[in-house]
Hints:
It is built from six helices and 50 strands. It is mostly beta strands. The protein folds into three domains: 2-133, DotD protein (Phage tail protein beta-alpha-beta fold), CATH 3.55.50; 139-217, Immunoglobulin-like (Sandwich), CATH 2.60.40; 345-828 and 863-913, Maltoporin, Chain A (Beta Barrel).
Amino acid sequence: MKGLSVFLALSLSATSLVTAQVGTVGMDARGPHFFSRVGGRMVTIEPARVSLLGVRVDARFEDVTLRDALRSLSVQSKMQFAFSRDVAGLDRRVRMDARGLTLAAALTELLFDKDLDVVITTDNRLAIVTRAHREIVPAGTIRGTVVDSASRAPVAGVTVSVLGAQIRTRTQIDGQFTLVGVPAGTQTIELQRLGYRRVTRAVDVLDGQTTTIDVALPQTASTLDEMIVAGTVVETRRRETPVPVAVIEEEQIHTPSRTRLDQMFRGDIPGIIGIEGSPNQSGTYLFVRGRASLDLENLVKVYVDGVELPTTALISSLDMQNVERMELLRGPQATTIYGSDASGGVLLIFTKSGALGGPRLSGSASIGTSASNFVSHSPVTTEDRLTLSGGGQGFTYSVGGSLLSSGAYVEQGDIREAGFNGRATFLQGPFRFSLTSMYSNRVIGMANPPGFKVLAPLVPEYGVSQNTDFTTTNQLLGASATYAPDERWQTSLTVGWNGISDRGQRYKPRRASPGDTTYSMSLETLDQLSARLNSTLSVRPSPGLTSTTTGGIELARGASGFLGADFYDRATDFQQPVEGTSFVSPEQLTNNQGYFAQEVLGVNDRIFLTGALRVEHNSNFGANEKVIWAPRAGVAYLIDLGSQATLKPRAAFGTSLRPPRPGQTGGAASPFFVQRANPNLRPEVQHGFDAGFDLDLEKGALSLEATYFNQTAKDLIDQTVLSYADPAKGTSNITQYQNLGKVGNRGLELGVRSRLGIAELTASYTYTKSDVKSLSSAYQGLLIPGDELLYVPRHTAGGTLAFDLPSFMNRRTHRATRLELGATYIGSRRTEDPVGFVSCLYKLAPCIDDTPSQRDYWPSLPGFVKLRAGVTQPVNDRLAVFLNVDNLSNRQDGELLKESPSRGRAILFGARFGE
């Protein structure tokens, strides 16, 4: 009997699912029908597509009333049941014995042959109504497929909704969607997805029938309708965000004139500039709206597929071919959502996850050389990449690898790198699950800056080769799960691990002196675990009013350590060192917890008000510092200036924080100093506002942005000496980290992007003044109030002008010849001249003053312009060749320090296939 009951329930449920797809015609009149209220009327729904009815319950009833059985289901499903006043028969006795049924199946059996139906009310209650009193609205089904208008490839994750009916779904991996229970008549459906223009279509829906449509979704035309993530943690139209967000699309990343990911921040994007600072080509220093700290620690927080990177320095090691999109949110407002170390903003990097279809191989191979005034040969560069991607029903994947090598343009300043990356995405109904993995191994040669050689009489090591390699290994694993039963509610969980090791080894003695037989090694490690959970609910409390509420929690745990050793081998045999010294730093643990909530109110799709608050604690805070609050507020307003122009004024305020570095709060001791603990050490805090506007003309043909920002960073951390060593007493320096300073950052950001015919222009200009406001009496550095911070240029600018021309080699190909011209301008900036100062102190060169001060050797480096050019020429639809020339004018002056030159004119030639 038990088996028969279960079979009957499942059979009736299955019958309902099949017949509901073609309307009310043909439904079993003896079983309950399921409805939803739409605009005060009821339309037929398919139970399998309603998550509320998919909850599992145990229907085990032995001679109980129907009322009690329904109450039991209400308790198990946590759903409220309501009964129409005229419902009869609730006292009749029922029997049922089944486990693990869906709520829909259990209701189907209990209400079978009782002339009762189920209605989902607007407040998500289940109403049991008499069949005679239902008002059935004629309804039908809409099925369709969404493809990219340019490539015709299926587009997954598109939100498809019926306007005014609160009926929504999302497209699957194959681009298909189904809307059930759509009221008959002419209905308007809306389609939205990140990176694409919002599209509406009028569809004639017939009662009991299925209407099929195909929609070609164009990529975003109007910049204000573009879907972005960085302003919040879920896909949001740019028009709703009160802060400036820069979006770098795939076509900009994979340009012929860029060879490294951090080169994207060389002037095209307002507010951020990358300055080369080392002759080993390992990357650039990123400055966002000046400096909010006394050290050069990068203050941009970076996420790859939702997993936090522990340091910005890893950006240059990411494989450009694997990156699909980047978003940069500038300013302290990012901290409220993304947490500590986001004083300058947050950079979100999204990697490729493949596309539906059979396995597809793509890649590139290239070789080149660069000019150099510091080596006798022309250093050779090679870059080889390979990616395999594809997908099937409900999943996509992309895996790839790369081998890169760049010859030394200063002695021993070479770099060799091997990398691997992979991502897989699975989509099943409302669930989306993705896995991300990355690995890179970089061997970087330690080079002497050429300008340091004048110090060789004083420091012999500067006159010889360093014979040292640093091997940096980075491993990243991440998993993300999203549950989005409809457009109104979305919950996501992301967990990740990032492991970094930096191993230095002097592989043979430098021979700086006859007795120099020193080998050395060092190992610095950093492991970080992170988890992020957030949930978003979007509702429409009344016509013209929308509410989007987001809450979340973010946890991170990091462990860092250092080991160093020197070996002195009198026999010059590295395998048998006879004496040595070592230094081991104890493992430093960092725990961080952050909790945030954000509310966005929209009025008539024109006014958007944002308010948010974050509370955070970090184990590196001083013992007396408990938690830090980081509020955020902003407003955006849309003004229509005509059918082809939209203006969005905006303003926002925010507070960011940067905890002390590991080890700065506690005490420590070494042979050279004693560090005292500071239980009152506070995090560095930056607060401020920005205001400006975004202007869109001709639906994206021309977009402009302008932003004024004014920010203050206080409680800046620096080390001070409490007492100096006394050799007679055998004491060491006693130091302590303290909050010692305040700086201000203010300026103007301008950006323009234009797409007119075959030409595309992206350009920016930024003015930044970053100066010291005040310093504690305990501060012992060289800065004084009023000083502009070193290395920060007041003026930066840049841009790229691209042309898409008919293919010169094969006019039948669908791909265009792309020609790019680019420029980077970095204005004058103050810097340090350590060589000049030391040369003066030790009489290696004349002094500037009879009483020299290190401040005398803070020169201003002149501004410069660097030009680049690139061309991609398609051979056919699967193969293209490219030529890239960087630093056309062959300027090799140092950008951060004049003694550390930059790479000369670099030429790279190669081929790409499969794109």
